[in-house]
Amino acid sequence: MSIIKVFSVFAVLAISFFSHSVIAMEFHFTKVADKTYAYIGPLTNRTPENLGLNNNIGLVITDKGAVLIDSGAGIPSATVLEDAVSKVTDKKIIAVINTGSQDHRWLGNGYFAEKGATIYALAKTVKTQESMGAGLVDKMTKVSDIFALTKPVTAKTPFKKDDVKLTIGNTMFHVKHFGDAHFPGDAVVWLPEQKVLFSGDLIYVDRMLGVHPFSKVASWQKAFHLAEKLPAKLIVPGHGQVCDWNKARQDTGNYLDKLVKVMSVASEDMLGVDQAVADNKDWPEFKHLEHYDSWHKTILSRTYLQFEEGI
Ligand SMILES: [Zn+2]
User: How far is the CA of 238 from the centre of ligand 1 (A)?
Assistant: First the structure.
């Protein structure tokens, strides 16, 4: 089915969906630096109203066209992002760079590719996207069935290297993998001229980071500290408000440091997961983070199990 047909089916679904639903959310990009914008998603979970866009997305305007950093959680998210881009520039979206493999990082790729955009990603990112794509579409379809028509589409020619310098129009983009983190193959996009870092899910602020069974906590901690060497004036984190390194350290780096320190000792001492979680359930310095109550103990437990297995 062509994307046009897919889109018209989506439009019908969306109209019926919105007419039975609460007021639609507003999606817009905010300027963060010269020709550089960010959509800052809410700190909530995925909902039919936010269309899975509870994350941040980048937009850079080059002289050749607009470049998106990440493409949203599927066709419905891609259409609202496209609309938000059109409020900033009348240039076409000519490229999408993926920073990761979680649904809201890349499931909009197919929509933009069909309209002529080139999709860029590192081979390590694409490997995870390929293995998880179908499952992620299913997950988004549970959020709302308007995602059912989304097809996982990856970059045609992924970059084999972990550190790539890409020039699009007159703008330089560096795509870098510092280590597996929230998802295996996570990457960041560094704009050396603007000194802006789009960190993807390497950095979360204002909310708890997410550790899944396949997230690699020790590697994430190392990756964070390697990324810290970038002289970023501004960081657009994967989730939360635009920040600097101090804030990123406070909400992500320090949490990872403590997690690794505490759980490596606990697993070496063979404390057992229940005891390790009980001993660490109160970390007041991170209580301000949204979702602390629902995530912190799960993260402790998953991290202990990883260290016990020696991951
Ligand atoms: Zn995310």
Answer: 6
